[in-house]
Amino acid sequence: MSLPSEVDVAIIGAGAAGLGAANALRDSGLSVLVLEARDRLGGRSHTILPAPDIAFDLGCGWLHSADRNSFVPIAQGLGFEIDKSRPPWRDESVNVAFPPRERAEFIAAIDAFYERCEDASDAAQDSVASEWLEPGNRWNPMIDAISTYINGCELDQVSVYDMDAYEDTEINWRVRRGYGALIAAYGAACQVALNANVSRIDHSGHRVRIETSRGTLTATKAIVTVPTNLLADEAIKFDPPLPAKVGAARGLPLGLADKVVLALDAPESLPKDGNLRGATMRTAMGSYHLRPFGQPCIEGYFGGRFAQQLEDAGPGALAAQSIDEIVALLGSDYRRRLTPLAASRWAHDPFARGSYSHAMPGCSDCRAVLAAPVDGRLFFAGEATSLNFFSTAHGARDSGERAAQEVMTAGRTQSR
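The structure corresponding to this sequence follows.
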């Protein structure tokens, strides 16, 4: 199937934001086409089945702030089972290899750090989150490690203002069949052109001209939902240029969070939905989810500079590091019981180049700059444009719906 020569609205990217925009425009009376560079829907959400009895989310896996997460009613409407079990990362009863007393000390230290950051967010000037670590606290490396999981980077790259802006209700649920599978199902009814990598958007004329790897089309309006690292690298050229957008994207780089899944022989020896992380004084270390949903596997999670080092070491490095760490914590018997199945490498994904956005110190206002429409014809969405739910799939989806409303409002204004 060839691309149409023209549409009313072209949406760049079939991740949660692009699909959110497309679904919001479905009954608008406008012709809509989503242009996706990959051969699948979902963007940075992707569920795979690396073994017959294991579903694994290479990307997003948790319905964060589930009581306010717009994918919860969508999942219910599409018949996806939601697991509301308490997440393992703060549940002492399912934590392995982290003595309760030390764990309590760590929780107290990280809670005190967050309180200092919250106080700092009231200051007249933004600051670097790492400034608010307590000097000499033994838990500082682990607090930094938590940042690599949450922000995709260490605290020396995080804006305190941005940290405070994020809204976390601390209710986290999961989709049994996979978050990526849910988002793909959400987009199934949308008109999508796959393998259509957009390289240029010319908005100099009356209509927006979009060049893709499958040909060129024009649109009355376009919604751009690609990750910030692509905008910052100018993987898509705008004509005329949009230096404010490029600058905002550079202030909102994608951090890196990678996941690996290992098949587990004789899984009944470990708790279902357990958490494994040693009381180590290192930032460069993984965190492990034991038997998610009771599946016979262990999921490993790495972030920040350490994840980048492992990616750069080549395929297999994440699994090898995970097995070494698990063996160090649980014993040498686990080396023969663990088999690598799959791993993400988001920094090496040419259409992502990272995992999710964080604001550099002094750049928290870049989210609003990136979200602002241009000339009533170019609109921008994506998790990085969400003011309060950035770095999440539902933040991305909601931003797409917001951009779709802006498209329709601009159309009504222009028709008067």
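The CA atoms of residues 8 and 220 lie 5 Å apart.
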